[in-house]
Amino acid sequence: MTNVSTGTAGTTSPQRAFARRAVTGVAATAALAGLLVPAAQAAPAADAATATPTTPTAPAASPAEGKVAVHQAASTAKDEQRVRAYWTPKRIAALSTPLSKNPPLDAADGARWKGDGAVTTTVGRLFFTEQGEDVSCTATLVKSANHSTLATAAHCLNSTDLLGNNDEWQQNLMFVPGFRDGKAPLGSFVVHQAVVNSIWLENDQIHSRIYDAHDQGFAVVGRNEDGKTVEEAAGAVQGIAFDAPGNRPAYQFGYPRAALDDAREGLPEYTGRELAYCQGTPREYPGVKDTPEPKGQWGVPCVMGGGSSGGPRFSGFKTGTGLGTQVGVNTQAGYMDSSGAACEGGSDSKCLRHLVGTQFTTALTKPLYDKAQHLS
User: Fold this and answer.
1) Backbone angles phi, psi at 107, to 5 degrees
2) What are phi and psi of 84, to 5 degrees?
3) What does the alpha-carbon distance between residue 373 and residue 370 come to, in Å, rounded to a whole number?
4) pLDDT digits over 206-253, tens only?
């Protein structure tokens, strides 16, 4: 695994865990140091996993399918009230990094989304508390039977500490679609259930070839302050597809809190304040010698850093309508040269940083999606 925030490849176990957490914004990278506030003491939510995970003991040639695990994040009105009360304007503001005086710079590998359309109401920030720290990811509203299902990364729902131990479900999970400069134009939606593959619950931060294919999940949210479902509030949903070719032109969106480019560091779209995107033709990232990846890790050249995790990879995206079909999710970074070969040493002049993540499949993604979309 390669860190979305720092781009460190071929790391040891603690470093790889640090890299995984830096994707969400917990790690104190140069861009984020000192800007997180301590989490309040929140009562842990009850765990309602539907399966007992088994622990893989060695890297496998392909990821195992595992079973669906469901966690009850907030099951009562009191739970919802507690989560909303937790996310004060001050806490949310603390998760936006400082602005810089850099001039605007738009490029295919990262830019502010200046358009309108459904992407501005269906993609949002996912706030939560991870291992005692307040952080954020990105999530997307997808078409579902319950009109309330979000696609995101598994590590935005469940994670370990820096050593790959103490697996915990995230707390205080709350989705804000269309988030912009501290505002919640459509209201906020507390996560009721989180859905991941049971194999992800055994993630040890070492065996990337086993676990990284399972870094995908779904969240089911309640209604907003006005009693609307998230689909009613958004007025649209994004499509979702499984087993789509990975090399089709794609758009990737997120709410990064850092840019892997000094010229863009501190611009509003890299501080968590505004929606950012990258576009291009994805490449499949094979991983490096010490940390090989499973098949299906695709992404485009992109400088979006921590906070962009969980964001969508759209195929067939239309800039006019802001609609597309979600075929994958952002989870990590991988450096590749012009031939598509992984760069063992990370970034150099011959390597491009790609924001990659698992491509949705019938075998691994659809069971999670089918379970989530029928929860209430």
Assistant:
1) -155, 165
2) -65, -40
3) 5
4) 899 999 999 999 999 999 999 999 999 999 999 999 999 999 999 999
Distance CA 221, CA 35 (A): 28
Residue 303 in tokens:
């400088």
Cα–Cα dist 152/157, whole Å: 8
Give the neighbor-by-neighbor strand order of the sheet with 239-240: 111-112, 276-280, 250-254, 312-318, 323-329, 239-240
**CA distances, 187 to each of 18, 84, 103, 219, 225 (Å):** 32, 11, 31, 17, 6
Which pLDDT does position 346 carry in this prediction?
A: 63
The rounded distance, in Å, linking the Cα atoms of 97 and 117 is: 26
With a cut of 60, say whether residue 196 has pLDDT above it. Answer: yes
Q: Please give the model's pTM, rounded to 2 decimal places.
A: 0.86
323, 118 contact by CB (below 8 A): yes
- 324: tokens are 């597309």
Which amino acid would we find at residue 11?
T
Contact 306, 22 (CB under 8 A): yes
